[in-house]
User: Fold this.
Amino acid sequence: MTATATSTARLRSASDDSFPRVRWGRAGAVYDLIVTVGFATPLTASLLLALTRSLHDALHLPGAQLPELDPTALMFTSMFGTAVTMWAIARILRPEWRFIAIDTAGRVLFSLWMIWALLNGQSATVVAFLIGEVTWLILQLSGLLRLRRR
Assistant:
């Protein structure tokens, strides 16, 4: 095979859709994109956090009110938002089993950190995020298990 033919074959195999997809993988990534894109900049993150504080007060939810974040905390929040947004885009474009497996493990950890925050008196607004994480964890895990049985 010539070098050009080999390169063409590699490009074709890298861009085709023959990789095993996990049921619910792309949908979970779309959910993540919707939930986290607003945290990707300091301006939008501060607006979303202010909205969350207002929701906490309006619903008289238990737990501590979310604090106002200083620029350093907003920077870290936005770095998290940017990383998760980019990770979501990668999984939308390539919902491969290995990416969905990594994401599912991440959902376990995110869920644990949210439970830890709730147990340490943080706002019950965290529960909405926890429900989303656990829901997509279960759906993605079921897809991974179904793929494994094939």
Summary: The helical segments are 3-15, 25-36, 42-58, 71-93, 97-119, 126-149.
